[in-house]
Automatic annotation (TrEMBL):
It comes from Streptomyces hoynatensis. InterPro entries: A-glucoronidase_C_sf (IPR037054), GH (IPR017853), Glyco_hydro_67_aGlcAse_N (IPR005154), Glyco_hydro_67_C (IPR011099), Glyco_hydro_67_cat (IPR011100), Hex-like_dom2 (IPR029018). Homodimer. It catalyses: Hydrolysis of (1->2)-alpha-D-(4-O-methyl)glucuronosyl links in the main chain of hardwood xylans. One of its GO terms (cellular component) is extracellular region. This is Xylan alpha-1,2-glucuronidase. Its EC number is 3.2.1.131. It is an enzyme of class 3 (hydrolase). Residues 194-548 form the Glycosyl hydrolase family 67 catalytic domain. Transmembrane segments: none annotated. Pfam families: Glyco_hydro_67C, Glyco_hydro_67M, Glyco_hydro_67N. The keyword Iron does not apply. SUPFAM superfamilies: (Trans)glycosidases, beta-N-acetylhexosaminidase-like domain.
């Protein structure tokens, strides 16, 4: 696939991907499934009864019991002696991963089949007909008997096998992993088959993730669009709107960690269902409170609750934390803050050890340094390589990692903000080392890089660092929380954007200038392009304390899709959308196709009415939601006018060789393609060129008319989404229907505001007529 999808298609494009093997219930919603008060709080794990009577009958004949041997043998570590749920909770704490898998199967199958499916812990004489057996070769004699070690070994640590087995007149299913977590992932994959009405017999499935570390970053205090508060981002009753309560006050004070809330476990189950392995629980603009002993105790309780689901904790830290007086007497002076200073390294190693004592599987630290006012090694005369390595050296003996973010844009480096990160990090990656190798970053450092060179815009070219940092571990950072893509008001399914990113060809070459065989961004991230053994992908998550956990019901889809793509970036985003719709809204044929089509066009529509044809960052600085193309801020590189460069000749930022020459940071094929206004993909036109108002475009329109057309087409699509949604009223439960309907009305009004504000502002420069076309 090329750099961007061809053209915008704004009409409904129905992804009728339901294969013949899939049974689509004609009835949209079974009576049992209809709960008009349902608030969305189960995410995609709602497990309502199968509405299609024939399919239900079939599944019931095929499944009788859940069989998990020795579920309690590998008890998970627990630091908090009296770990407990808040009074009145519905979820239950798990002691082990196999127990979590067993409980999920029982809950899921009982819900889907609308009858109690019991669990048993031993096969007796023979595995019962209809059993769903789950385990590892270590935990289960059935698995040991039926799944050869060599075959299982091939799926690796997190992978699983699902097999249908027939023995005489008995037929049953075996779900096997090499680890308990692998088996848990298999349980969710099996449940997904029922949730999406796929066959569950004749199975011989093997799955394993392409990327080893699949993490969320959670920003507890910023860009929270899922806070349970009518005004949008805050909380209620003393909570701050974040998913996890550390310091809630008033009515909610008794609900602070170490007390565990239902929503933590719902989130944990949902994240495990898509294979998420870690979560950095606090904002990258980090508050040192998270490193205090009181907070560490709370974090340990959270880690205890999430551990059975295979989810490990990490923390964002502030580089200068050692100077914070709240750690007195264990503090350092500014003079000791050089990353090579033993005092600095020892401080971090002490702190990490303290955390590790409470959280033995602690992942490590995420660091935002010398970025947007955060302190960093440059304040003390050192570069990012020194800073990352100083911390990495301190924690390496503990087996911890440093995720060092590359979101830096020091204005002294270059006038073009987009060039700055590579200019700072690239030379460190290239640097010859005393041992004859290249690249100074240590092995336990990941450079964590946003998908594009600017900042989570709805569409960006890929970050030039992908493929360029062959000697360094790189993690891709995507933003799930919709800061620039509609926040909690606009319906925008982001998987197609991430798919575009992951499948973009970097045209990376080897040392001799030969094109690599595998060189899509996904190959760089999964390590196969340049032979990296350690791999990571990170999503800045959109969870909060809202009833539906993500603010907008359709934002749940973004969290779901991130997990699925982190597991397997080669997946098709329409297939992911279809699974999510079936699991979240129902399996009715018309419903599925209408919602998938609506979602699949929603991102391209947003790009069209916000920032079409590659014009970037036209957001109001106050909240990054609405349009403000005329805004001029104290910092040039925060100002919409800097990004649009509007004048009488045209619109867009010249980053070609005649301009800032950002294009030179890409590999030669992309550099040439982006650098030439005749070959740059239309969708990235204004990222790289200042485009004359009368330039002829592929559509036959001139640039100005095409620009106006995009804005109008984008808003029209939102109108179509509203009509589609209205047409589904009889097929959707009442509360969720009304909530989405209300959001879509706001969405359309806000999209029209984007169109009108931008078009009329551009018109002051183009001096041309606004001709809205169909
Ligand atoms: C920007 C956000 C800001 C983050 C920053 C980052 O507006 O809240 O702190 O990214 O990623 O997009 O560090």
């Amino acid at each position: 696939m090329g750099a961007v999808a061809a053209g915008v298609t704004l009409g409904p494009q129905v992804g009728e991907a339901a294969g013949a093997a899939r049974s689509d219930g004609a009835a949209a919603l079974g009576a049992a499934a209809r709960d008009d008060d349902y608030d969305g709080s189960a995410l995609w794990l709602r497990y309502v009864p199968i509405a299609d009577p024939q399919l239900l009958g079939r599944y019931r004949r095929q499944i009788s019991t859940v069989l998990v041997e020795n579920a309690d043998r590998n008890r998970c570590h627990r630091h908090t002696q009296d770990l407990r749920m808040a009074p009145g909770s519905a979820e239950r704490l798990m002691d082990s991963t196999l127990q979590a898998a067993r409980e999920e199967l029982v809950r899921g199958l009982s819900g889907l089949l609308d009858r109690r499916i019991p669990a048993q812990d031993g096969p007796g004489h023979a595995v019962p007909d209809g059993a769903v057996v789950l385990g590892t070769r270590e935990s289960s004699q059935v698995v040991r008997r039926l799944v050869p070690a060599g075959e299982l070994a091939r799926v690796g640590e997190d992978g699983f096998l699902i097999r249908s087995v027939s023995q005489g007149r008995r037929a049953f299913t075996v779900i096997a992993g090499n680890t308990d977590v692998g088996a848990l992932y298999g349980a969710f994959a099996f449940l997904r088959r029922l949730q999406t009405h796929r066959p569950i017999t004749g199975l011989s499935l093997a799955e394993s993730p392409r990327i080893a570390n699949r993490h969320l970053n959670y920003w507890d205090t910023e860009r929270l669009y899922a806070g349970n508060n009518a005004s949008g981002t805050g909380g209620l009753n003393g909570e701050n709107g974040a998913l996890f309560n550390f310091a809630a006050t008033g009515e909610s004070a008794a609900r602070n960690l170490p007390v565990i809330l239902d929503r933590y476990l719902v989130a944990a189950r949902a994240l495990a269902s898509v294979g998420i392995t870690g979560i950095t629980i606090n904002n990258v603009n980090a508050d040192n409170a998270y490193l205090t002993p009181e907070y560490i105790e709370q974090e340990a309780a959270l880690a205890d609750a999430l551990r059975p689901y295979g989810i490990r904790l990490a923390l964002s830290i502030r580089y200068a934390a050692p100077t914070d007086q709240r750690f007195a007497p264990d503090t350092l002076t500014d003079e000791q803050m050089a990353p090579v200073d033993p005092a600095f390294q020892e401080w971090w190693s002490r702190k990490a050890r303290q955390i590790q004592e409470a959280i033995p599987d602690f992942v490590g630290f995420t660091v935002k340094a010398n970025s947007e006012g955060q302190p960093g090694p440059q304040d003390f005369g050192y570069d990012h390589g020194d800073g990352a390595n100083g911390m990495a050296t301190a924690v390496a003996p503990l087996g911890l990692r440093i995720y060092w973010r590359t979101f830096v844009y020091n204005a002294d480096v270059d006038r073009d903000r987009l060039k700055r990160a590579y200019l700072e990090f690239g030379p460190i990656d290239d640097e010859p080392q005393p041992d004859g190798t290249r690249g100074r970053f240590l092995d336990n450092v990941f450079l964590q890089t946003k998908n594009g060179p600017l900042d989570y815009q709805a569409r960006e070219p890929i970050h030039p660092m992908f493929g360029r940092m062959e000697n360094t571990n790189q993690a891709l950072e995507l933003q799930i929380t919709q800061e620039y893509t509609g926040q909690n008001r606009m319906l925008c399914f982001l998987a197609p954007m991430w798919e575009e990113v992951l499948k973009t060809d970097t045209y990376a070459t080897d040392g001799d200038g030969r094109l690599l065989e595998r060189r899509l961004v996904g190959h760089i991230v999964d390590g196969t392009a340049q032979h990296h053994a350690d791999t990571a992908i990170v999503g800045v998550a959109n969870l909060g304390n809202a009833d539906n956990l993500t603010g907008h019901h359709f934002s749940q889809a973004n969290l779901y899709a991130f997990g699925r793509q982190a597991w397997d970036w080669t997946l098709d985003s329409a297939d992911i959308a279809e699974d999510w719709v079936r699991m979240t809204w129902g399996n009715g044929r018309g419903l599925v196709s209408a919602l998938v089509a609506m979602m699949m066009g929603s991102w391209e529509a947003l790009v069209s009415y916000q920032t079409p044809l590659g014009v970037a960052h036209q957001f109001r600085s106050s909240d990054h939601y609405g349009p403000a193309p005329s805004e001029v801020l104290a910092r040039e590189d925060w100002s919409p006018v800097y990004y649009n460069q509007a004048d009488a000749t045209g619109l867009g930022f010249d980053r070609s060789p005649t301009g800032s020459d950002l294009t030179a940071q890409y590999f030669p094929t992309l550099a040439a393609r982006y650098g030439d206004i005749d070959s740059v993909p239309e969708e990235l036109l204004m990222w790289f060129h200042h485009v004359p108002w009368d330039r002829p475009m592929p559509s036959g329109r001139i640039f100005w008319d095409e620009l106006v057309h995009r804005y109008y087409a984008g808003v029209r699509y939102v109108g179509e989404m509203r009509r589609t949604w209205d047409s589904l009223e009889s097929q959707v439960d009442a509360r969720r229907f009304a909530e989405v309907k209300a959001k879509l009305a706001l969405h359309e009004a806000d999209a029209a505001d984007w169109r009108d504000t931008c078009v009329s502002y551009w018109q002051q420069f183009s001096g041309r007529e606004i001709r809205a076309t169909d």
